[in-house]
Each structure stands twice: as structure tokens, then as C-alpha cells.
Design goal:
Order of helices and strands: HHHHEEHHHHHHH
CATH superfamily: NCX, central ion-binding region
CATH class: Mainly Alpha
CATH topology: A middle domain of Talin 1
Radius of gyration: 19 Å
Structural class: mainly alpha
Number of helices: 11
Distance between the termini: 27 Å
Oligomer: single chain
Number of strands: 2
Shape: globular
Strand content: under 5%
Length: 335
Amino acid sequence: MLLILVKFIVCATIIVLAGIRVAKYGDIIAEKTGLGGLWVGVLLVAVATSLPELFTGISAVALVGAPDLTIGDLFGANAFNLLNLAFLDIAYRHGPLLTAARTGHALTAGLSMVMVAFPAACLLISSLVSPMGIGWIGIYTPIIFILYVLMVKLIFNNEQQTQEPPAPEENSPPKYAEISLSRAYVYYALAAVVIIGAGTWLAFVGKELAEVTGWGESFVGSLFIAFSTTLPEITVSFAALRLGAVDLCVANMIGSNLFNMMVIGVDDLFFTEGPILASVSQSHTITALVVIMMTGIFIAGLISPPKRKTSFGISWYAIALIGVFLLGAYVNFVA
């Protein structure tokens, strides 16, 4: 047990250090390309920090034969990402976090709700009506891929249309002038590779730890493995917040939720025993519903942000996010 705990701490530390680098160089890329923190956060940084979910899922279905573990991980990771927005709000010292974030995140959040609801509905249909398969692949898998591509394109087009050019500052040196764009790409890629390796290892350490406890695959995947694989998102977003890149840290969380649902399609391709959503527990729909509710709270807080935090140093939407997450964890545990 002690050895497992040591491995967990070592791996988490590696992810923290690499995550700080991903945040820094992601912000540099956003600055030098002019693409904006929202777009870079949704695609570049979010994909890098979600790679542990991708590789863990492939390993879980192709090597371990545990589809419940990966589906639980993906829905659970989305819930953790939204919970992390509450912690980011607590850490932000300049008022409610969402007052400093662009309303453009509402589009990404709304699309992520669709991406969560679609596989959740397919899971229920697969369990109660039909496996929805073409060979070993679910008919929903190509639809998931198409939806993801269309949604990313829609976010990019919206970002290009709504992004305001930065106001010129007199006698102010260019930001990150000492670091070239090519160097930023190289360092970003190196940090991402470290996150892939350490994040994947961390998921296996989490599975080993879960086996010691003897809890079920669905609950373990939704809570323990999900927490393990979201450590990159947590680290990168807090590092981005420390740099003052609020849009980058928020977009990373919401963009990761979008990407995680696309991973379901990837896992389905590697799971050769049949359509993956027909082979998992219906209890995952509880986690999916929690994610949808939490996303709705985020959108409400973004569209109508409070002017100030409560006397406890936390915004109302952050309290609601924490409450719904804890309720969902309890229902999953007793289900």
C-alpha cells in the first residue's frame, strides 16, 4: 500500500511540473499566433491535458478488458473538470472568476452538453433496446467524431469573429519577446509528451490502488481514475490562472470535456467485443446527468456573473458546482 502511494505522489509531481510548462507555452502560443486564449485552450492545451484519458481508455479496453473503467473515467473526468472551476474561483483573488472570463465559453460549454448527452442517450438505448452496433462498432461512433469536428470548427469560427484585437501599448515591450514561436512549440510538445507518459502511468497506479480497496469498476473509474487523469487539467489551469490567463484556464477545462466525449468513439474502435456502450453499466448515465447539470450551472454563472463573492470567499456558482458534484458522487456510491 505504501509503495502504491509513493508511486502516486511521484507521478503526480511529474505531472504538476510538466503542466506548468504546458500552461506557460500554451499562453505564449496564444499570444504570438493571435488565436486567443479561448481557442488555444479549447484545442491545443485541452487536447494535451486530456491525453491521459485517451491512453488510459485505450489501455483499459484493449489490454485490460475493462470498458466500465474507461467510460466511468471519461464521464467522471468531465465532472472533476467542472468541480475544478469551483476551486479556481476560490483561488482567484480579483473577484468571481467568471467575471473575468469571456462569454464565448458559453458556446463551448453548450456544445459539450450535447456531446455528453448524446453518448449518455446511446448508452441507455444500448442497454434497454438495442446494442446499436455495426459489427463490433457502435453506430454512434462515427457520429461522435463528426460532431466533435463540427463543434471545433464552430468554436474556431466564432472565436475569429468575436475576438477583439489587443489595444496597442506605448513604450511596452512585446510579451514573451525572448521566446520564439518555434521554441514555444517545441517546449510545449516536450511537456505534453511528459504528461502523456506520467498521466498514463498515474491511471494505472490509480487502478492498482482501486483494486486494493475492492470497490466496483464504475465507481472507481468515475472517481479515482477520473481524478488521476484530470490532474493535468488541474495543474495547467491553476498555472494559467497564476499567469493571469483566465480564458486559457477556463477553456482548458471546458475544452477537455468536449475532447473526452470524442475519446468514447476512439475507445469503441479498440473494444472488439462489441459496441462499448452496450457493455457498460447504466449507472454511468448518473454521472452524465451530473455533468450536464454542472455545465448548466457554469453557463448560468458565465452569462449572469455575480459582482462579488460571498462572505466565504466563493461565488454562488462555485458552491452549486461543489454541491451537485458531491451529490452525484454519493448517488454513484450507493447505486
